[in-house]
C-alpha cells in the first residue's frame, strides 16, 4: 500500500462520507454549520491507551461543546466493534460517549489524512489529531506514538488559542492559557518599529520592537 499525503496546515481538510456509530456522516455536515471539528484516530478498539483517551474525551465533552467543537473518532474497525467497545467504556467508567466514531474499514479516511504509517502497521491507524476550522481548513495536526496517550487539556487549549487568534488578530505565546496576555503583530516599517520602542502603545507591554503583549478585554456575560 502506498503512503498517502498528509494534509498540511491551512489546506482544505479532505471531505468524507463515512459510516459511523451515528449513521452516515460527512465532514461538511459540521463545518457548513459553523462548527470546528477535531478528527482523531486511534489504532484499535479495546486497547488500554485508547480506552483511557475515549473516557477522558467523554468526560470533557461539555468543554468541547462550549468551544463549538465536534469530536469525530476514526479507526479501521467495524461498526459492531465500535458499538461494543463504547458500551463497555460507558459501563466501566460511568460516562456517555456522545461523539460519532467512523468505521473506516475501506481506509478511505485513513488514506485521505495519512493515518496509516506502514512502519508501524498497514492495518491500523496511528494516533493522530486534525483540528479543522469552520471554513474546512486544517489548522493544526498532531501525531503520537502508539504508547503515548493524548493530553486533553492541550487539545482544548489549541481550540481556545486558535479561536482567540481568529477573533482578535493576535498570536498566543508559549504556555498561553485563556486570560494570559497575547502577542500583537510586529511593526512592518522602520518608522513604526521606532515608534513602538519610543512611544510604546496604548495598553501594550513592549519588550522590544518586535515583541509586545497586551491583555484582551472580554465583555462581561
Keywords:
10 strands, 3-stranded antiparallel β-sheet, 221 residues, 5-stranded mixed β-sheet, alpha+beta, 31% helix, Glutaredoxin, elongated, 2 domains, 7 helices
Report the count of strand segments. 10
Identify the CATH homologous superfamily of the largest domain. Answer: Glutaredoxin
Number of helices: 7
**CA-based gyration radius:** 20 Å
For the largest beta-sheet, the strand count, sense and barrel status come to: 5 strands, mixed
Outline the low-pLDDT stretches: none
Strand percentage? 15-25%
Separation of the first and last Cα atoms: 53 Å
Adjacency order of strands in the biggest sheet:
5-4-3-6-7
CATH architecture of the largest domain: 3-Layer(aba) Sandwich
The CATH class name of the largest domain reads Alpha Beta
Overview of the structural elements:
By secondary structure, this protein is an alpha+beta fold. Helices cover 31% and strands 22% of the residues. A 5-stranded mixed sheet has the order 5-4-3-6-7. The model has no long low-confidence stretch (mean pLDDT 91).
Secondary-structure blueprint of this entry?
Blueprint: E1 17-20, E2 23-26, H1 27-31, E3 36-41, H2 48-59, H3 61-66, E4 69-75, H4 79-93, E5 101-103, H5 108-112, E6 127-132, E7 138-144, H6 152-168, E8 182-183, H7 190-198, E9 204-208, E10 211-214
Parallel strand pairs: 3-4, 4-5
Antiparallel strand pairs: 1-2, 3-6, 6-7, 8-10, 9-10
Report a brief summary of the structure.
This protein is α+β, with helices and mostly antiparallel strands and 221 residues long.
Amino acid at each position: 500500500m502506498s503512503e498517502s499525503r498528509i494534509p498540511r496546515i491551512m489546506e482544505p481538510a479532505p471531505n468524507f462520507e463515512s459510516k459511523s456509530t451515528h449513521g452516515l456522516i460527512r465532514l461538511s455536515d459540521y463545518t457548513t454549520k459553523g462548527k470546528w471539528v477535531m478528527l482523531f484516530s486511534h489504532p484499535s478498539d479495546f486497547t488500554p491507551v485508547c480506552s483511557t483517551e475515549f473516557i477522558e474525551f467523554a468526560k470533557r465533552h461539555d468543554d468541547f461543546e462550549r468551544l463549538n467543537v465536534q469530536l469525530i473518532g476514526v479507526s479501521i474497525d467495524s461498526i459492531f466493534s465500535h458499538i461494543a467497545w463504547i458500551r463497555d467504556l460507558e459501563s466501566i467508567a460511568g460516562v456517555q460517549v456522545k461523539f460519532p466514531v467512523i468505521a473506516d474499514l475501506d481506509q478511505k479516511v485513513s488514506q485521505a489524512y495519512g493515518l496509516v504509517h506502514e512502519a508501524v502497521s498497514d492495518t491500523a491507524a496511528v494516533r493522530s489529531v486534525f483540528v479543522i476550522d469552520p471554513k474546512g481548513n486544517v489548522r493544526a495536526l498532531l501525531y503520537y506514538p502508539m504508547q503515548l496517550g493524548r493530553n486533553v487539556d492541550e487539545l482544548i487549549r489549541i481550540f481556545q488559542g486558535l479561536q482567540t487568534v481568529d477573533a482578535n488578530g493576535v498570536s498566543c505565546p508559549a504556555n498561553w492559557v485563556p486570560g494570559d496576555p497575547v502577542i500583537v503583530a510586529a511593526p512592518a516599517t522602520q518608522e513604526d518599529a521606532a515608534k513602538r520602542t519610543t512611544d510604546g502603545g496604548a495598553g501594550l507591554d513592549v519588550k522590544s520592537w518586535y515583541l509586545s503583549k497586551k491583555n484582551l478585554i472580554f465583555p462581561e456575560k
